Amino acid sequence: MIESIRIMWIRQIKEYWRSKPRLIASIVQPTIFLMALGFGLGPVFKQAGGLDYVQFLTPGILGMAILFGSVFNGVSLLWDKQFGFLKETLVAPVPRITLLIGRSIGGATTAVFQGIVLLAVSYFIGFRMDSLLHIPLVILFMFLIAFLFSLLGISMGAKLDDPEAFPLIINLVIIPIFFLSGALFPINNLPSTVTTIAKLNPLSYGVDGLRGTMIGSSDFGIATDVGILLVVTFVLLIISSYLFERLET
Question: For the chain, how many structural domains are there in total?
Answer without folding.
Answer: 1
